[in-house]
Amino acid sequence: MTEAPKPRRLTPKGRATRDRIIEAATELIARHGVAGTGIEDVRAAAGVSGSQLYHYFDGKQALIRAVITRQADSGLPRISALDSFEALRAWADAGIERQRENGCRSDCNLGALAGELSVSDEESRTDLADGFLRWKDLLLEGLRAMRDRGDLRADADLDELAFSLLAALQGGVLLSQTMLHVRPLEAAMNAALAYIHSFATSAR
Question: What's the pTM value of the predicted model, to 2 decimals?
Answer without folding.
Answer: 0.83
